[in-house]
Amino acid sequence: MRRIVSTAVLFATTFGVAFAGLRAGERNISAAAQQKPDATEVKIDNFSFGPAELKVSVGTTVTWTNRDDIPHTAVSTDKTFKSKVLDTDEKFSFTFSKPGTYEYFCSIHPKMTGKVVVQ
Amino acid sequence: MTAKSKDELLHDHNHDGVDRRGFLKCMAWAGTGAFCIMQGGVLKSYSMSQMAQMGGKVGKGELSFVQISDSHMGFNKAANPDVVGTLKTAIDKVNALSTPAEFMLHTGDISHLSKPEEFDTVDQILKGATPKDIFYVPGEHDMLNDDGKQYLERYGKNTKGAGWYSFDKKGVHFIGLVNVLNLKAGGLGTLGHDQLEWMEDDVKHLKSSTPIVVFAHIPLWSVYPEWGWGTEDSAQALAYLKKFGSVTVLNGHIHQTMQKVEGNVTFHTAASTAFPQPEPGKAPSPGPMKVPAEQLKSVLGITDVNYVHGQHALAVVDSSLA
Ligand SMILES: [Cu+2]
Known about the structure:
A: alpha/beta, 4-stranded mixed β-sheet, about 30% helix, disordered N terminus, B: Purple Acid Phosphatase, chain A, domain 2, 8-stranded mixed β-sheet, 7 helices, about 20% helix, globular, binds copper (II) ion
């Protein structure tokens, strides 16, 4: 009886470690993807846009995802784009068809600012 | 004055307005049920146990009202999965006050996402409050999507502009301001030219002995600009109030109690009925703060305000929902 239990624990532990290793690997891949200049994702975390400045080529679609427990928006100061209010995990996408520098902010928390440079 | 106990603080602020250490102690108590009162230019703090010994002598006056704030109806994340329950507890507290409140102020963020059903739920719960008159100002969460159209239809009857107004109760002049609209990138809360002009006109003909209460969602003093906790043109509004001997400013937005005295003006922020937020700069962001479930009600609360005619200032008492 005793042996069976400890084997089961051992199995679970090994499986757990293997699973944790896999997740860590996944995270590395997505971190690398974010660093590429053509990244098209902006994550909203802790009341900030990340990356705060994004460089993309003309025709790129950028997607904002709110990962906070509080709603946010992404609104460009020149009114080119304006998201609806994004609750937790909601997304907003916009395709940039003209080159330029687009500064934007959260209209609910105006201290939150970001920039998309389209080339 | 000879038998002053160690729990009582006296801060003389004839010079710069505030005794820093005493003020901080007053703030620290606020969350756990402290009582801070201005008397003849002296800010005094008492613990709740002292209040009991005094037999409620302080705090009884001719005008008694309650401020509640930031009910965030619709919020359902870990920091408080039951904002309905905590708002009901807050109303139970209001109904149980030893000096009944004549009316209530709600200083905004009634709803979390400006949804009609969120406003409906709050309205339903507030119907259970003993004070029947409720005066509102909007928070940014109440004016999402439509620049406040729905808010004004529901709560803005008899208001001016984006929802500002004033009224009088037993000789005290109340001014409700809106500082959550037309926010600019990188900026703070803002009142705007039209509202400031209205306000200047509104107070022009009042006697300087009239006690003034100003209420608005975002603080009208610079609590922590790094998190947007301030209003960029509040100095202009306060300039119109210079001639008055007693000005009390009541705000919400920051989900914690704070008090500051500057000359003739006492600034005070109320706790939320929904969830706490971190102290300025004490967390990576001002997002909802998760505390152990059994502690939640001790960091939520209501604010009870009393005015005694002839006394210098209004007495502001925070009490938690615990
Ligand atoms: Cu925001």
